[in-house]
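Hey,
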Amino acid sequence: MSLPDDPFHTTFLEGQRVYWSDQNIVFMEHLGDPIVVQARFLSDGLSIPRPLRGLIAKAPSFLATGVLHDWLYAKQTNTMTRKKCDRIFLWYMKRWGVGWWTRRSIYFAVRLGGKQFFRQSDPSFYKGSHKH
């Protein structure tokens, strides 16, 4: 995977914290072609329900895996099944060093609740300017 030097910026849009990168993020998909998350794609990071945020951070060190998962779930970004998107997310969390309990908990949560978000919206992109 190829992360930019300063990978993510954050802001609040419509009362929600979102993340984006000024550069494309390339994930070398473990079973096929690279997955490229386009520059300025907006993600909410990890969609951790409020009651669980004390146990699992919404923007942990493995934030990039959540951005990738959001990209895979957006409309017209790929032709993968939801199960494959979730398995890729699980694989990257393991590669990123996320502990077994944490990654399995997150994985099962997206398997249980992710269907309502899969292919429900077109990808959104940050349109503002960012000053370093």
